[in-house]
Amino acid sequence: MGKITDIKPQSRNKGRVSIFIDGRFFCGLEKLTALSHRLAIGDEIDTRQLAKAVFDSESAAAFEKAAKYLGMRPRTENEIRVYLGGKGYTQEVTAAAVDKLIGYGYIDDKEYCRMYIESYKHKSGARKIEAELLGKGIERDTVVDALDGLDSQTDAVTRIAEKYLFSHKADKRKLTAYLMNKGFDYDTVKEALGDMEINGD
């Protein structure tokens, strides 16, 4: 047990306070956390209560940082975990913040996949999109399920091929390699190029 001997606003962050136990600095807390735990000068408090207050404070701060980070653009769950870990938050604090963000609908990997596919399906093939989404830490099952709803990409391949041929010498082998490097599968490329008159046929 110890006695709270002072609670001071922090000069560098007005939203936080410094807690002093028995005359010594013990920890910094979010002001709202200190209020929610009803901490007051003169209170006797044990280490478990303080540990819970610190955890709640860190979770609240992590949530706020992640919410601001998400405000720039949508992020995957893994991207948020990596971001908060890089800010020094523990796995437990990060997990609590992420769970809260998911609960509020701020993080949704299924919706992220849907939007990502919608944005890139005219530029990249399913194989490349899948690799990019997996690279963002999204679970394979979530990615595969999202790609199951992807329509035929034949029209997209045709448009990209026509644009390529406008600025490159016609060569079917090189064009096929170019399109497959963009992640389109061979059958889709073959179908799209089937009616085109291209050298190397």
- Give the overall form: rod-shaped
Give the % helix.
Answer: 55-70%
CATH fold field value of the largest domain: Arc Repressor Mutant, subunit A
The CATH superfamily label of the largest domain reads: Winged helix-like DNA-binding domain superfamily/Winged helix DNA-binding domain
Protein model, in words:
By secondary structure, the protein is of the alpha+beta class. It has three domains: 102 residues, Arc Repressor Mutant, subunit A, CATH 1.10.10; 39 residues, no CATH class; 40 residues. The chain has ten helices and four strands, in the order βββαβααααααααα. It has a four-stranded antiparallel β-sheet with strand order 3-2-1-4. Strand 1 and strand 2 form a beta hairpin. Helix 6 runs antiparallel to helix 7 and helix 9 packs across helix 10.
Can you lay out the helices and strands and say which pair or pack?
Layout (H helix, E strand, L loop, with lengths): L1 E8 L6 E6 L2 E7 H6 L7 E2 L1 H26 L4 H10 L4 H13 L5 H12 L5 H10 L4 H8 L6 H14 L4 H10 L4 H8 L8
Antiparallel strand pairs: 1-2, 1-4, 2-3
Summed up:
This protein is α+β, with helices and mostly antiparallel strands. Helix content is 58%, strand content 11%. It has a 4-stranded antiparallel sheet with strand order 3-2-1-4.
What tags apply to this protein structure?
10 helices, four-stranded antiparallel beta sheet, Arc Repressor Mutant, subunit A, 11% strand, alpha+beta, 201 residues
